[in-house]
Amino acid sequence: MSVIVNGFNGFEQFKCVSTFLKDSNHDKSIHGNANLNCGTAIYSNNSVLNLNFNSFPINFKTTFSLSWSYCLSYNGDTLWLFGYVGRKSNCIQNFKLPNGEKINQISCSRRHILCVTETGTCWQYNLETDKWKDLSGILTTEQHQEDTIREVVVKVSCGETITAVLTDKGSVYNMPNKLEMRGEKIVDVSCGRSHILMLSERGEVFSVGEGSRGQLGHGELENEEEPRLVEGLAGLVVVTVVCGGWHSCALTSDGDLYSWGWNMAGQLGLYNRESRGKVSVQAIPQVVDWPDQSEVHVSKVACGARHTVTLLDDGSVWGCGWNGYNQLALVGMDSVDQMTRLPVDGSVRHIVCGPWSTCFIT
């Protein structure tokens, strides 16, 4: 297994990962494997171009979470933070949860780290105060005076100003408040900078939060304080929802990709020659077409602040949007406003995007 990294490296977050993996003592402590090989990276203008970690033994679904200033990973009961730590760049810090439990899923933003444990406990770490907070007490639903049901956390998602917590009961918390879903059971959540997408078990999509750039998908630019059905996706069976900074994506069971929201850098992939180069807002979900009207089946999608990356079922990787730090691996191109095939070697199995970076996991 390999991890190929492209994008912003202004805090040397990926450079120190590279240094870390080359140290056999660290190799043993984090992975139990002293034979890891780290590929050669090219660093230019605060960017990292194609840093390849060969034979990186990780759980490719949940191990990485990327902020703009640091890279977060975990192994068992230990979190590893690479990059900007304690007002210094190129730092490495490791720490454990206060209760010592093993970690099952992570998500991070500039100020916070959220962890879900194997037992469904949720912890929040504040990078500014260096303090942990157990969020599990907030997630207890009282049904009767003498009867309480504990909700187990199954997923967390961090935005810059908003945090979503999903429980095994299908409840969603826009922390610290529980959202009223009117009987809908939610199976997935994703946070943008200040909005949340929610996927129901019936394949419907709901959104809540800031809507100033059309990211909620309701055909208007108003905020929503309560979850609202995205009617533009009615009749479709959605299987994945993903938020960018101020844009949103939904993947259907037929392998079609829909996008909406802010399109300043072409991150929606909705190429329009007449409006090229202009700031655009698409407030209603629209299907993304591939060049030459090619029929494709999208299997995965990930979003950064202003870029979108997709994996097709034929194994090819495509992307669009802002490429100012080479997060799309398209050297010499500032942005692309239509889906463009990305020059990524290897058989990509998963994609993780940070605000200005991308990890291709093979």
Automatic annotation (TrEMBL):
Q: Which InterPro entries match?
A: RCC1/BLIP-II, RCC1_domain-containing, Reg_chr_condens
Q: Which SUPFAM superfamilies match?
A: RCC1/BLIP-II (SSF50985)
List the Pfam families: RCC1
RCC repeat ranges per the UniProt record:
203-254, 255-314
- Annotated protein name in UniProt: RCC1 domain-containing protein 1
Source organism of the structure: Cuerna arida
